[in-house]
Specification:
GO terms for molecular function: FMN binding. By secondary structure, the chain is an alpha+beta fold. The chain contains four helices and nine strands.
Length: about 200
């Protein structure tokens, strides 16, 4: 998507723009937000980050959906500490976004079942190998899987719900930056409207 002719003028417009760009990342394989960087907390307390494909965005529930091999290290990290940050950058629109929140892993629930049913056959084969992601192997590359037997047991959905979204739009006539925060306390009802919205110095 080309850079907008003019930056969003109000905070409401900024938030709508950011959420729309995330949704475009799901629909457009060439969009910068098609893949995002997902950071979790490693078992030693340090940061760990990887690039993942953005599968779905629900702007009302404030969730992003990602898919993973259930045996991967990030799953154990999220189970241990659900705090996650997501970062994306689209070079065409010169937009960077950072989102902070919490993630949950669905291994065998309705969400994972529906995501698996909607997955393409080639995508399912990624979860078929018996080798655990990140484990040592004797040689590379491993032959690709041709049968998806057992693959469903290795598949999981990561559902990330953000409570902070930071938007940074880069432009020759002046950068713009804004932050939105939601209050997701124990007694707070889920809301698409942020509790706080503010402009930031770029």
């Amino acid at each position: 998507m080309p850079q907008p002719l003019s930056a969003p003028a109000t905070l409401d417009e900024v938030l709508a723009h950011g959420l729309a760009e995330l949704r475009r990342g799901v629909a457009d394989r060439r969009h910068g937000f098609r893949t995002v960087n997902v950071a979790s907390i490693a078992t030693d307390g340090g940061p760990d980050v990887r690039t993942m494909v953005l599968r779905a965005v629900d702007p009302v529930a404030r969730t992003l959906r990602l898919h993973s091999d259930v045996r991967s290290g990030k799953i154990a990290q999220i189970d241990r500490d659900p705090r996650v940050m997501v970062h994306g950058y689209d070079a065409r629109s010169r937009l960077q976004m950072r989102l902070r929140g919490h993630a949950v892993v669905d291994r065998a629930g309705a969400l994972a079942d529906a995501a698996w049913a909607a997955s393409q056959p080639m995508a399912r084969l990624c979860y078929a190998p018996d080798t655990v992601p990140g484990s040592p192997i004797p040689a590379a590359p491993l032959p690709p899987a041709t049968e998806e037997a057992g693959a469903r047991a290795h598949f999981a959905v990561i559902l990330f719900r953000f409570d902070m979204l930071e938007w940074l739009w880069l432009a020759a006539d002046g950068h713009r930056r804004a932050r939105f925060m939601w209050d997701d306390g124990a007694d707070a009802a889920a809301s698409a409207a942020p509790a706080q919205a503010m402009w930031l110095a770029p």
